[in-house]
Design a protein that fits this description.
- The protein has an eight-stranded mixed beta sheet with strand order 3-4-2-5-1-6-7-8, with helices on both faces.
- It is built from 13 helices and eight strands.
- Strand 3 and strand 4 form a beta hairpin.
- The protein is an alpha/beta fold.
- The protein binds adenosine-5'-diphosphate and magnesium ion.
């Protein structure tokens, strides 16, 4: 039977763009709609899904890997929704980075549990570390969270570039978070999704946008998930729409038989070589060993362009 569990890696270039809140509330929304969901706190050094949910973990994934405890003991079930969460450690340092071998072991350990769920959401650390790249590769879907800030867009573009060039991942879902002005969406579309398509030959699809919402910040302070505390709030409503799209995506992938095996590090084949004219039109996107390094990436150039008149300025935003 083709795989049924859709694993989704939630990624970002820059930290603090809202990955953990998006992951948790997406998971709750999916769970509330009848799906069974496992959240894996994959930010191994700076875990905080447990903090956002207001529980103290009985142990972490790392303890399981070290043989100190079992997955069953560490697995947390949210009493309000039945959502399953596997917590990671925070601030202990050594386990923040995993090499390929430990990552394989981690995935093998988690797979039997993961496969019992309809969705597995991996809340990954920011940036481009080996651990992030390996865990991102192990998922069937890669969902990149960014905000409209030029720095977040530039870093998201760098992430897409590395994952596509070095790991042959060519399809991404993108969620734009912390929107104050709708104009920010079209700017981010051009600067990130457009640039990725044009210069990286990567398909980056906008799965949804999430409004800036002070109630989300209040939920963080209260260590209670937004979806529980303010289910009708703007950000909760936006995240619920993304959850609906993820559900449809899963249905479509099941029908097509295209869900890759859950949490497995299969080798991906490079996509067909880009036509010569595209390569020429996108200097800086070819491997460093064959091309001189360019001064700026297209997204950096796009992201640092002045915003058109009338678009959100930092002053207008309370972020
Ligand atoms: N839609 C939003 N509206 C308002 N504040 C937000 C929103 N998304 C994120 N934030 C703020 O950003 C902070 C960091 O979010 P978090 O999910 O921890 O980011 P990450 O996991 O990417 O580091 C939150 O604590 C909150 O203050
Ligand atoms: Mg986080």
């Amino acid at each position: 039977m083709p795989a049924q569990t859709l694993s989704v890696a939630i990624l970002s270039g820059k930290g603090g763009v809202g990955k953990s809140n998006v992951t948790l509330n997406l998971a709750l929304s999916l769970q509330q709609s009848g799906a069974s969901v496992l959240v894996l706190d994959g930010d191994l050094g700076l875990a905080n899904v447990d903090v956002l949910m207001g529980f103290t973990p009985d142990g972490t994934i790392w303890d399981v890997l070290q043989g100190r405890t079992t997955i069953d003991r560490v697995l947390h079930t949210d009493p309000a929704s039945g959502l399953h969460v596997l917590p990671a450690a925070s601030g202990t340092g050594q386990q923040a980075q995993l090499d390929t071998k430990s990552c394989q072991l981690l995935l093998k350990t988690l797979r039997p549990l993961a496969e019992k769920h309809d969705f597995v959401l991996l809340d990954l650390g920011a940036g481009l570390s080996e651990t992030v790249r390996l865990l991102a590769r192990s998922a069937a879907v890669q969902l990149v969270v960014t905000t409209p800030e030029p720095t977040a867009i530039t870093d998201a573009y760098a992430l897409l570039k590395v994952l596509s060039k070095a790991h042959h991942l060519n399809h991404f879902q993108v969620a734009i978070n912390n929107i104050v002005d709708p104009e920010e969406v079209s700017l981010t579309r051009t600067r990130l999704l457009g640039a990725a398509r044009k210069f990286l030959q990567v398909e980056a699809r906008l799965i949804g946008t999430i409004r800036h919402d002070p109630l989300l910040q209040e939920a963080v302070y209260k260590r209670t998930p937004l979806l529980h505390l303010f289910p009708e709030s703007p950000a909760a409503t936006d995240i619920a729409s993304i959850a609906k799209k993820l559900k449809s995506l899963r249905r479509k992938m099941i029908a097509e038989g295209t869900i890759s095996p859950c949490l497995s590090l299969r080798t991906r084949k490079p996509a067909a070589a880009a036509p010569a004219d595209q390569a020429a039109a996108s200097p800086g996107t070819t491997p460093a060993q064959t091309r001189p390094v360019q001064k700026a990436s297209p997204a950096r150039a796009a992201a640092t362009e002045k915003a058109p008149k009338g678009s959100a300025s930092p002053k207008k935003s309370s972020r």
